[in-house]
Design a protein that fits this description.
Blueprint: E1 2-6, H1 10-22, E2 28-32, E3 44-46, H2 51-64, H3 67-78, H4 84-97, H5 109-131, E4 135-136, E5 142-146, H6 157-163, E6 169-173, E7 178-182, E8 187-191, H7 194-198, H8 207-218, H9 226-232
Parallel strand pairs: 1-2, 1-3, 5-6
Antiparallel strand pairs: 4-5, 6-7, 7-8
Helix pairs in contact: 1-2, 3-5, 4-5
């Protein structure tokens, strides 16, 4: 068993896939550098991310599968599931070894795993789009903190840039320690300690109070169904919802 270490980026993973083919390694694992995976008899090799090599693999996938299948593949990368690289590599090998589009062959374990995991990531993306609540800071930047189960922050850019195009905002992933910042022109990734420079103290804005008022006005006590409510708004999201705060 040979092991290829990559830097954790999507381009890094695709570069490792390219290297596995270039070295003609069939018995190989691709792991994030911090995973600490080791092997007794095989070769362990770090991979330097190479965008042209990554694009050759990505373009190969796009010519052999549909746009939707490529999206599911990317969603699977964002899942950060343990050993997800194993079935992603298996999926790539299956696609490249087949003459037709096999992205819908759910009898294959890698294809079914990709689809199942991507569905969970997509569900988390939609929940974040619905549950993010902004607080206005003293420097007039709207700030929201989230801790999604999966790394869905890159999938939120289009939604929030479109919906809040006239406001400066930051969405910060507390679990992964990076965020999105929109400056009325573009969205960029920010990392600590940039977040401390971008934030001010919370202002006395009644922005969160508006959410509470709206929630209260639309809530019909007589029709309250807590079991159904928890199905749509799981308890773990409540700490980020303004309307759920005392």
């Amino acid at each position: 068993m040979n092991i290829l270490y990559y830097d954790g980026s999507f381009e890094g993973f695709l570069t490792a896939v390219f290297e596995s083919y270039a070295r003609k390694w069939h018995d190989v694992r691709i792991c994030k550098a911090q995973s600490g995976a080791s092997t007794l008899f095989g070769e362990v090799s770090p991979v330097v991310t190479d965008v042209p090599k990554a694009m050759r693999v990505w373009n190969g996938l796009k010519t052999r599968t549909s746009e939707a299948a490529c999206r599911l593949f990317y969603y699977n990368y964002l899942s950060e599931m343990p050993n997800s690289e194993d079935w992603m590599l298996e999926y790539v090998r299956y696609v490249f070894a087949s003459e037709g589009d096999v992205s819908s062959d759910f009898s294959h374990s890698a294809v079914s795993s990709i689809a199942r995991t991507a569905k969970s990531v997509g569900r988390e993306k939609h929940r974040m789009e619905a549950f993010v609540r902004f607080e206005l800071t003293a420097d007039q930047v709207y700030y929201a903190a989230i801790e999604p189960d999966f790394n869905v922050l890159p999938l939120l850019i289009k939604h929030f840039k479109s919906r809040y195009a006239d406001q400066r905002w930051i969405i910060w992933d507390k679990k992964r320690h990076y965020g999105l910042r929109y400056d009325l022109d573009k969205v960029e990734l920010i990392y600590e300690p940039e977040i401390s420079d971008a934030m001010g103290e919370p202002s006395q804005s009644d922005y969160s109070q508006l959410w509470k008022t709206y929630f209260k006005s639309t809530n019909i006590v007589e029709r309250r169904n807590m079991k159904l409510h928890l199905q749509h708004v799981p308890l773990r999201y409540w700490k980020y919802l303004s309307e759920k705060q005392p």
